[in-house]
Design a protein that fits this description.
This protein has helices at 2-11, 28-34, 50-57, 76-86, 123-130, 145-155, 185-199, 231-234, 244-251, 297-311; strands spanning 22-23, 41-42, 64-67, 91-94, 117-120, 139-141, 165-169, 172-173, 179-180, 204-208, 237-240, 255-258. By secondary structure, the chain is an alpha/beta fold. The strands form four sheets. Strands 3-4-5-6 form a four-stranded parallel β-sheet, sandwiched between helices. A four-stranded parallel β-sheet has the order 10-7-11-12, sandwiched between helices. It has a two-stranded parallel sheet with strand order 1-2. Helix 1 crosses helix 6 (145-155).
Length: 312
């Protein structure tokens, strides 16, 4: 899902006659709302193994542009890239976060899931990947197109007065069998104390689950089902760990708080390299105002795709 949002603003700038879209079911709702008029094929492997499915489909294409995602639980993206490598089909992938570098390596620590070309957010990410002996000449810095899109959209949006509302933004903890980070005991203590305090101030709390989490631990809270843009109109305060939604909320001026539990500090291999939220016991952080940290990311992503299609 995160990868789909990262790539979507770039796709919007590409000639639709140049590509066909195959969409993972997890991204179906987002794609239909972001691209209401675009045709796409919904991924349906039927009774096939995912590798057999891609082996049957990929020979029809001269190149592949894809998101990348964790190989844990769902290997759709990983196997797609591996099949492209095995069949000498050029691939361009995008890394939509500052973490999760293990997604490129198989069980033998070989970069079987690394696309031929890779678009990343910044120099820090590129340097980290280079330190893992991935080919530096195939890694290109483009910024973050989705954050660029949100910032541009927010400039033209009328100011809204949110209800007193808090959103718990969940994500799975790979160190705890992909249960929600909110299942960790220290986090629950922090969250419960904070919600009790804010309830006395008239705030209501809601829970936004992650598609890959297997346990929530906050089933008693109303479940948020807002779409990828409406969610920022509904809530004033966003609470989580290092979800990209927290960065999105911060970039458009929302109040963001981040859990700092020592027990989950290793849940991500790298931290986001700038401040986008404070601890629950700290004052609200300042937001970036008119600064767009990722300005022109959409343009750079479009140019990378054009060069890839021209040079392969």
């Amino acid at each position: 899902m995160g990868g789909a949002k990262f790539l979507a603003p770039i796709i919007n700038e590409i000639d639709p006659n140049l590509y066909e879209m195959i969409i993972h079911p997890l991204s179906k709702i987002f794609i239909e709302k972001f691209f209401p008029d675009k045709k796409y094929e919904l991924l349906n492997i039927g009774k096939n193994k995912i590798e057999d499915f891609w082996q049957m489909r990929m020979p029809a294409y001269s190149s592949v542009i894809t998101t990348t995602s964790s190989k844990i639980i769902d290997q759709t993206n990983s196997v797609l890239i591996q099949v492209c490598r095995d069949n000498a089909i050029p691939s361009l992938g995008f890394l939509d976060h500052w973490k999760g570098f293990d997604r490129f390596f198989d069980n033998y620590n070989q970069p079987s899931y690394m696309p031929d070309w890779l678009g990343v957010i910044d120099q820090k990410t590129k340097s980290r990947l280079e330190s893992k002996n991935l080919i530096s000449s195939s890694i290109f810095i483009i910024g973050h197109p989705w954050l660029d899109f949100l910032k541009q959209k927010n400039k033209t949006k009328a100011i809204s007065l949110e209800a007193k509302s808090i959103l718990l933004v969940s994500q799975p903890d790979p160190l705890n069998k992909f249960a929600s980070i909110f299942c960790e005991k220290d986090n629950q203590i922090q969250i419960n104390e904070y919600l009790s305090l804010m309830e006395t101030k008239g705030y209501n709390a809601f829970y936004r689950s992650h598609p890959k989490e297997v346990k929530s631990c906050y089933g008693h809270l109303p479940l948020d089902k807002a779409d990828f843009l409406d969610v920022f109109d509904k809530y004033e305060i966003f609470v989580g760990y290092d979800s990209m939604m927290l960065v999105e909320a911060f970039m458009i001026g929302k109040k963001v708080f981040c859990l700092k539990s020592k027990k989950i500090k290793n849940a991500s291999d790298y931290e986001i390299p700038f401040t986008y939220g404070n601890r629950l016991d700290e004052p609200f952080p300042n937001h970036p105002g008119e600064i767009n940290l990722f300005e022109n990311s959409i343009l750079r992503g479009k140019e990378l795709i054009e060069v890839f299609l021209r040079d392969i």
